[in-house]
Design a protein that fits this description.
alpha+beta, 2 domains
Length: 205
């Protein structure tokens, strides 16, 4: 894996970081707007690391809506989701609202702050479920983690929040270094459709 690179916020106007900040196409106006947003969030630096890449720079994740990297905020590392310029939605506020609702029953990474183009949340330092499973040699941790996942799904069902993508569980379940599972990525979550979180995750398991 490529060594992580930490870049101060004032240096993000340089390439290739400017293009990542405004992925997939940068403009001066958009770049200045986003740099201002980061400043308002109190972000001091971004850390580029991960198994995925954007413009040959490592990132934690990349999807149709956004790119996820590490941000340094008040001396701590948080996960930062950046809205793609070509995303099919105008902002990340809906995802933040769904994450906040999940947080109300102790599910998901803790929401930190949100704006039009950026969603800051707790950084989960761990492995996606398939990688974690491959590394397991004992049955007890496996049983505990799966029970915890099902319990979290039940809590989401109970408050009427449907994640929407748990049948694709590998990319939406991260197990941290203390063997605690986290359900992540609430961009397609809804409180306006029938919940099927337990059913969906069971289809994967």
């Amino acid at each position: 894996m490529t060594k992580p690179t930490k870049v101060l916020t004032e240096n993000l106007k340089e390439e290739p970081y400017a293009s990542i900040l405004c992925y997939p196409r940068v403009s001066d106006t958009e770049l200045q707007n986003r740099l201002g947003e980061l400043k308002n969030h109190g972000v001091k630096a971004l850390e580029f690391a991960g198994k995925t890449s954007a413009f040959n720079v490592p990132v934690l994740g990349k999807g149709f809506v956004g790119i996820v990297i590490i941000a340094h905020l008040d001396g701590r590392r948080v996960a930062l989701k950046m809205r793609r310029v070509d995303a099919d939605r105008l902002g990340l506020q809906h995802e933040a609202q769904m994450l906040a609702k999940a947080n109300s029953v102790q599910v998901g990474p803790r929401l930190v702050s949100v704006s039009k183009n950026f969603l800051l949340m707790q950084f989960i330092d761990g492995a996606v479920l398939p990688d974690w499973l491959d590394a397991q040699k004992e049955k007890k941790p496996l049983r505990n983690v799966l029970n915890d996942i099902l319990e979290q799904c039940w809590r989401l069902d109970n408050i009427g929040l449907d994640h929407g993508e748990l049948s694709k569980a590998p990319k939406h379940l991260i197990i941290d270094k203390t063997q605690k599972p986290f359900i992540v990525d609430f961009e397609t979550a809804s409180i306006n459709r029938k919940t099927a979180n337990i059913t969906s995750v069971c289809q994967f398991i």
